[in-house]
Every structure is written in structure tokens, then in C-alpha cells.
Amino acid sequence: MIRYTLVRLALLVVGLLVASVLIFLALRVLPGDVAQLIAGTRSTPDQVAAIRDELGLGAPLPAQYAAWIGGILRGDLGTSLVTGSSVLSELAQKAEVTIPLGILSLVIAILIAGPLGVLAAIWRDRRRGTLVSVAAQAAAAVPVVWAGLMLVVVFAVWLGWLPPQGFPRAGWQDPAAVFRSLLLPAVTIGVVEGALLLRFVRSATLQAASEDYVRTAAAKGLTRTRALLRHGLPGVGLSVVTVLGLQVAGIIVASIVVEQVFSLPGIGRMLVADVSARDLPKVQGELLVLTGFVLIVGFVVDLVHHAIDPRQRDAA
Asked: Whose CB among 44, 191, 202, 245 lies 3.0–4.6 Å from 120's, allowing a Cys bridge?
């Protein structure tokens, strides 16, 4: 287990390093000049050049990258070129919205996919099983923006149960208001991601139902459903743990869109604004943190799967 953990940790570090290089280079090919943006439309070329030198934008790319990585190793993600504030402090502030949104969305997706996926497999030869599968296919094909707008129309405009947009000014000083403001966005993401996960749970459950140990349990007197629930579901859980790592990446991408729809002051909304403003240090920091979070989740999922799956331990 220790050797496996060290190997995965080394791969995580390499992945973060490769991601940092790709992020750094990708942002350098974006059109626009942040120095020109800061100087204004009436600035002279000399003023723009002076700002570029002051911000270090005129240095060679390897020097800029080395300075950025050096700051990260010291715990400094840089300073915003537009606001002058610390990138790390702004990320921490926006994470108070994005992280709870992601966790709530994942919980909703699991609550939808787990029971309905198993039932769709058990009812595979019945009309209700077909209905669940068709509904999952339809929900998975729905764009997140459209799903969010429909939920706003139904639950905020028609019924008036939840706020349509925004985040409480008091923040987490009023947890009930925060939960109400995050519920519709989380349901929007959870339904779409849960539909995708449901299809996988159904397939994994059907595969588990065909395993010899499940059929043997049924031959010893258990019904097929009880044999599947008692002996097949643990194997399904192992497969689902692996897929959940991929679901986290989907939730992060969806949250960027959903935060725009519901006017939530999270990392996704800040990222879109910073890309428009060509605030390179903030965009670099935001993308690296989001990428690192996905890679770390994958790392943890690998360790958990390795720890609970005896087949992987034996192979190692």
C-alpha cells in the first residue's frame, strides 16, 4: 500500500506540473493586452510599455513561468493585475460558495443515481424500468443552462418556494438562507450529473447480476433481487467509487455555467470575469486550483479503491 501510494503521489505531482505548463502557455496565446487594458484607451505606447515592464509582462516566458511556480511553492498564487488583491485570498472567499455548491450537487446526484440505477436494473424487463432509463437518457441530454432556467420558472417564479438568483449578503452567518440560495443550482447540476451516473449504476448492477456468486446465492434459496442486493451491490459500489472521481470534474465544469445563471459569487463566475479582463495571474491561479482539485480527487479515489478492492491489493 505504501509503494502504491508513493507511485500515485509521484504521478499526481507530475500531473500538476504538466497542467501548470499547459495553463501558462494557453493563457499567453489569448488575444488582448492587459497592460493596454489597465492603461486605458487614451494611453501612449510609452505608458503601456512602462506598465508591461512594471508587471513583468515583458520578461521571457521561462522567467515568468519560473517566477509563478516559485511563488506557488511559497504559498503565493500571485496578485491580481486589475484589483491588486491576493489571488489566494479571493479564491478562498469565492470557495465558500463553490465548494458547498459542489458538495450539495454531488450528494443530490448520488441520491438520484444510486436507488434509481439499482431499481432500473431490477426492473429491466418491466415498463417502469424502461421509464426510468428513458427519463435518465432525457435528463442527461438536457443542457445545464436550460435545466436551470426551467427550475427557476417552476420553483421560483410559479411556486415562489426558492429565490431565483443571488447569494445572501450575510453569507454563512445565515445558513438557512445560504441553503435556500444554493438548492436550485445544486439540483440543476445534480439532476444532470445524476442522470449520467444513473446509467452507469444500472449497467454495473446488471453486470453484477450476471456474476456467478450472485447466481450461486440465488440457487441456494435467495430470490434474484435479494441475492443481488446482498452480494452484488458491494461490487457495484467499487465501480461507482471510480466514476465519482470523473463526476467531480463534470460538476466543476457545470458549476461555472450555473454560477452565471444564478448569479452566484463563486469561483466559476470569477473565472469568467477574469478571462474577459485578461487578469493572467488570477486566471492562472484559478485554473490551477480547479485542475489540482480534480487531480487530488482522482488520487484519493485511487487510494480508496485500492484499499477496499482485494483484487487490486493482490495484483499489487
From this structure: 202
DSSP label at residue 168: -
pLDDT band at 15 (very low <50, low <70, confident <90, very high): very high
N-terminal to C-terminal alpha carbon distance within the chain: 8
* Backbone phi and psi for residue 31, each to the nearest 5 degrees, phi listed first: -70, 155
Answer for the pair 97, 250: CB distance below 8 angstroms, yes or no.
Answer: no
Instruction: Characterize 22-50 residue by residue with b for buried, 16 or more Cβ atoms within 10 angstroms of its Cβ, and e for exposed.
Output: ebbeeeeeeeeebbbbbbeeebeeeebee
Residues 6+ apart with CB under 8 A from 177: 168, 170
- Please tell me the distance from the alpha carbon of residue 155 to that of residue 163, in angstroms, as a whole number: 8
Q: Read out DSSP for 37-100?
A: HHH-TT--HHHHHHHHHHHTTTS-HHHHHHHHHHHHHTT---B-TTT-SBHHHHHHHHHHHHHH
Cell triple for 124 = 429491466
Q: CA-based Rg of the chain, rounded to a whole angstrom?
A: 24
pLDDT higher at 142 or 237: 142
Crossing angle of helices 267-277/280-308, nearest 10°?
Answer: 140
Identify the weakest region by mean pLDDT among 181-185, 197-201, 259-263, 312-316.
312-316
Q: How many CB atoms lie within 10 A of CB 111?
A: 12
Residue boundaries of the structural domains of the chain = 87-315
Indicate the CATH number for domain 87-315. Answer: 1.10.3720.10
pLDDT, greater one: 249 or 151: 151
The sign of the torsion formed by the CA atoms of 193, 194, 197, 198 equals negative
